[in-house]
Amino acid sequence: MPRSEDLVRYCDELLRATAFPDVAVNGLQVAGTGEIRRLAVAVSTSRFTLDAAAALGANALLVHHGLLWGARSGAISGLFADRLRLLFTHDMSLIAYHLPLDGHPDIGNCALLARAAGFAAVGRFASVGGEPLGVVGEVVQPLSLAALLDRMRAITDRDPVAVGAVDVHDAIDRVGFLTGSGHSALEDAVAAGCQVLVTGDVRESTMAEARELGLIVIAAGHEATERLGVQALAQELEREFSIETHVIPDPNPV
C-alpha cells in the first residue's frame, strides 16, 4: 500500500501543482492515515461525499473542490468543523487539486471534456499566472448548435443552456472548453477564434456580453463539466500504485 505522501508527491509532479497561482490549497489538505489502500474520488467535498467515502472504507478522498480556500482565520466552526470532524473520525486524508486539474493537457477537465465532445485539441487559452487552463478544440465536420448541445447533454446528463449569439453560428467547428466558472474568459475565447465557449456556469451579464462579442456560451453545469478530471486521475493512481478506487457521484443541477 502506498503512503499518502508518496501518492501526493506523484500527483503534485504529474499535475505541476505548484505552477498554478490558485485560491485553493493543492495537494494534501488534511492528513489522515499514513497508508492508502482504498481511494474515493468526488468533484466536491461535502458531508455527502465524506459519508460515502467513509462507508466505502476509504483511507483518502480525492476531490477537485476541497475545504481550504484562500487565507482563512477565525474560529473553526459550523460546516467546516463538521467536515473536518468526519475526516478525523475516520482517519481519512483529504487530497484536492483545483486549477492544476483543470489545466492539465491530458487528464485535465478541459482537455477531457473537449475530447469527450469529439473535438481535437488545437490550442490553449485563458491563462492564469501564465498557465493556460482552457482548450481550443476543432472538428473536421462542422456542427449545428443543436447537435453540440446534444453532445453536451449526453456527456453531462443534464440540459445545457446556450446564451449569447445563438442565431449567428450555423456551422460550428472551433470551440473553447473551460470547465467550471469560465464566464470571465469570453474575450479570451473570441481572441482564440472560438465560435462557442463551453463552460460550467454563467452569470447574469454573460448573455449580453456574449451577444455583443458574437459568441455563443454554453453553460453545461459546474459540477457536471468537472467530473472527468478526478476520475482520470483516480485511474492513473490505480495503475501506478495498485490501489482500489471508487467514484462517488453527487450530481448538481447548477
Keywords:
254 residues; alpha/beta; 6-stranded mixed sheet; 5-stranded mixed sheet; 9 helices; 11 strands
Walkthrough of the structure:
This protein is of the alpha/beta class and 254 residues long. Helices cover 34% and strands 26% of the residues. The protein is built from 9 helices and 11 strands. The protein has helices at 4-15, 47-55, 78-89, 99-103, 109-116, 145-156, 186-191, 206-213, 228-241; strands at residues 27-30, 38-44, 60-65, 93-96, 120-128, 131-143, 161-164, 172-177, 196-199, 216-219, 244-247. The strands form 2 sheets. Strands 5-6-8-9-10-7 form a 6-stranded mixed beta sheet. Strands 1-4-3-2-11 form a 5-stranded mixed beta sheet, with helices on both faces. Strand 2, helix 2 (47-55) and strand 3 form a beta-alpha-beta unit. The model has no long low-confidence stretch (mean pLDDT 96).
List the helices and strands and how they pair.
Layout lengths: L3 H12 L11 E4 L7 E7 L2 H9 L4 E6 L12 H12 L3 E4 L2 H5 L5 H8 L3 E9 L2 E13 L1 H12 L4 E4 L7 E6 L8 H6 L4 E4 L6 H8 L2 E4 L8 H14 L2 E4 L7
Parallel strand pairs: 2-3, 2-11, 3-4, 8-9, 9-10
Antiparallel strand pairs: 1-4, 5-6, 6-8, 7-10
